[in-house]
Design brief:
By secondary structure, the chain is of the alpha/beta class. The chain has three domains: 324 residues, ABC transporter transmembrane region fold (Up-down Bundle); 156 residues, Rossmann fold; 76 residues, P-loop containing nucleotide triphosphate hydrolases (Rossmann fold, 3-Layer(aba) Sandwich). 62% of the residues lie in helices and 9% in strands. It is built from 22 helices and ten strands. It has a six-stranded mixed beta sheet, sandwiched between helices. Strands 2-1-4-5 form a four-stranded antiparallel beta sheet, covered by helices on one side. α3 packs antiparallel against α11 and α10 packs antiparallel against α11. The longest helix has 53 residues. The protein is elongated. The two termini are 53 Å apart. 37% of the residues are buried. The structure holds adenosine-5'-triphosphate. The site of adenosine-5'-triphosphate (ATP) has 12 residues, from α12.
């Protein structure tokens, strides 16, 4: 298909060598599990899955678990008693077919039957209520653990291609965790029904028991195979489903909605979406057919096996090995056993599927996809001296180092600026200074202690960062500045920070001042312009009582007046902090005590602004280029 104007390339025709979006599935390990989706593994895994379900439930509500187990045991026993009572009543009825005077003999059995049926109905309601109480709590607990693991992962985790996929897989685990209790409980009650029926059959004629189990085999195999086909299809379509998810987001997200329209991009993106959707559909269709074939074969085999069982009952009756009453009882028990078996296989399969996703969740919770923060425990004081010594850094999976042998330092009360061309490694250096990333080699120290030995959370309490892409929290203006961590002076501190960044002018115009919600898209709050947001972000950093202040392009969206205000007030805002500043507007670096010039990941110059613009080198080159534009402008004004 082509776009409206006929000029859009077909998304399916990819030029040779063109890189394509590819996502790693959460580990070959899930695929391995699919390979292990066999009857034997199922039998081995199910008990441990049920144990796991109850231990998760135990963590959230012990009383409910005890009550649930008690109800299940009583329900199972009464189910078995009910079956015995049914068969007893049944045999009395058959034996007394021509002698009604013996009917009263059936009264105890019938009473027991009615009693157990009533009790089971009541217990069923109690079990349902307890499950409904437990399920959402299990799900919430699972989600809490997953979020806790995610926020305790290294920031670098997001640069590992597998991390997001593993997080997605864990989310699916959270989602299915709500079904665990129901599935476990249905599985257990099916097992109880089957055991009761098995005991009755074995007491009538022991050979019927293995025959019954034999009849169950084809159905079990078919169910497991069918589940395997489904799971493998899910794995096979994972990449395309992720691409579709991502494209859907790009097509409808507000941030790009203007460009999707003005760039007439929608047909091209939709074409890519369609190409992925078609591949998913093709795989799903194949899987549907495979499942249908398996179902037909399974049903035929089950039919044959059931005929053999019924034939055996008739044979036993015909040869006088069992009485008519026993045959009637056997028929009843067989029906009951069939229901139990069906449940056992069906719920067992559901539970196993849930278990596969739960494994993904558990792996993520245990190790945050191998990225759990695992650093030292030293609690630092506000840093007086931060240094990088011979630091080299390479992003995970990157082909080359981003920083090479960098030496850098900043002291309390100093303002240090970092400049360099795009991609020279300035933001990367900021991430190392603030401990978001650890160096690949070399060392970053806070007062002589390697940041790898510091408790990361304690360290970040002394860190204040304005990143290039700062967050716009859907909260009030006050919360956006305090970040839920107000200083003892309360709003006075907020207003002071707002004055330093120029955010006070923004707040003045807001309908409820600091209490205005800044989240128009979501909660009917107010929308700010990018520059107004940036003033709030700088106020946030000024407000934070942190020894290290890192500002990465803090004035990129600001008008000249606002930018001027921030840089002239920077020394005052800095107070006794160590300040590191990244900026492309080189004139702004005149406020700094020292300037570091980065080129392709190396520090190529250091000195004051005036020293650097007056000596040959990259800084002077960049400065001249900037002045060149100013000269053009001045020339334009003169003419
Ligand atoms: N998450 C990442 N994973 C892999 N490589 C990255 C990542 N972030 C940055 N890089 C690479 O590191 C290099 C330096 O990026 P960095 O963002 O530090 O540059 P910068 O100097 O801040 O650039 P700019 O002036 O454009 O902000 C770039 O070549 C970039 O491709």
């Amino acid at each position: 298909m082509h776009g409206d104007n006929g000029e859009t390339d077909d998304a399916n025709s990819v030029p040779a060598g063109e890189e394509q979006l590819a996502f790693n599935h959460p580990g070959g390990d899930s695929l391995e599990l699919a390979e292990l989706l066999t009857g034997r593994t199922m039998a081995r895994r199910l008990p441990s899955l049920i144990r796991r379900t109850f231990s998760l439930a135990w963590e959230v509500d012990r009383k409910a678990v005890v009550a649930l187990l008690a109800c299940q045991i009583v329900s199972g026993v009464s189910g078995a008693l009910g079956l015995f009572a049914t068969t007893k009543a049944f045999s009395v009825l058959i034996e007394t077919a021509h002698d009604t005077s013996r009917l009263p003999a059936a009264i105890p059995a019938v009473s027991l039957l009615a009693g157990t049926a009533g009790l089971r109905a009541l217990l069923g309601i109690a079990i349902q209520a307890l499950s409904n109480r437990l399920s959402p709590r299990i799900c919430r607990e699972a989600e809490y653990k997953m979020l806790e693991a995610a926020t305790n992962a290294e920031q670098a985790a997001y640069d590992h291609p597998g991390f997001n996929d593993r997080f997605d897989a864990a989310e699916r685990g959270v989602d299915v965790s709500r079904h665990m209790i129901g599935q476990s409980q249905n599985y257990i009650s099916s097992l109880a029904t089957l055991i009761a029926a098995g005991v009755v059959l074995a007491s009538l004629y022991p050979l019927l028991l293995p025959l019954l189990l034999l009849a169950a085999v084809p159905q079990a195999i078919a169910s497991i195979r069918s589940e395997r086909v489904t799971y493998l299809a899910t794995v096979a379509t994972h990449k395309d489903r992720r691409v579709m998810y991502m494209l859907r987001w790009h097509l409808i997200a507000k941030d790009q909605s203007d460009q999707v329209r003005t760039d007439t991009l929608a047909p091209y993106l939709l074409e890519k979406y369609k190409a992925s959707a078609e591949r998913v559909e093709a795989t799903s269709n194949t899987a549907t057919w495979d499942r249908a074939k398996i179902a037909v074969l399974g049903a035929a085999a089950t039919g044959l096996a059931s005929s053999a069982v019924w034939g055996a009952v008739l044979l036993l009756l015909g040869t006088g090995r069992i009485s008519a009453a026993a045959a009637g009882t056997a028929v009843f028990a067989l029906r009951s056993a069939a229901t139990g078996l069906q449940g056992l296989v069906g719920y067992g399969r559901d539970l196993l599927r849930t278990g596969l996703y739960l494994d993904d969740w558990e792996r993520f919770v245990k190790e945050a996809a191998g990225q759990r923060l695992d650093r030292g425990t030293i609690t630092p004081q506000p840093p007086q001296h931060i240094a990088l010594r011979q630091v080299t850094f390479r992003y995970p999976e990157a082909a080359q180092d981003t920083l090479h042998d960098v030496d850098f330092e900043v002291r309390q009360g100093e303002i240090v600026a970092v400049v360099g061309e795009n991609g020279s490694g300035k933001s990367t250096l900021m991430k190392l200074l603030s401990g978001l990333n650890l160096p690949t080699s070399g060392v970053v120290t806070w007062d002589g202690i390697s940041i790898a030995d510091l408790d990361p959370h304690a360290m970040w309490r002394h860190t204040s960062v304005v990143p290039q892409d700062f967050a716009r929290w859907p909260m009030t203006a006050r919360e956006n500045i305090t970040l839920g961590q107000p200083r003892p002076e309360g709003d006075l501190a907020v207003q002071r920070a707002a004055r330093a960044s120029g955010a006070d002018d923004v707040i003045k115009t807001l309908r409820s001042g600091l209490s205005t919600l800044l989240a128009r898209e979501w909660w009917g709050g107010v929308a700010l312009s990018p520059g107004q947001w940036q003033r709030i972000a700088v106020a946030r950093a000024a407000h934070r009582d942190a020894g290290l202040l890192v500002m990465d392009e803090p004035t990129s969206d600001l008008d000249p007046r606002a930018e001027h205000r921030i840089f002239t007030g920077l020394r005052e805002m800095a107070g006794d902090r160590a300040v590191v500043l990244v900026t492309h507007n080189l004139a702004n670096t005149s406020v700094a005590d020292r300037v570091f010039v980065l080129d392709k990941g190396r520090v190529v110059q250091t000195g004051t602004f005036h020293e650097l613009i007056n000596q040959p080198g990259l800084m002077q080159d960049l400065w001249r280029l900037q002045q060149d534009r100013d000269a053009y402008r001045t020339e334009g004004e003169d003419t």
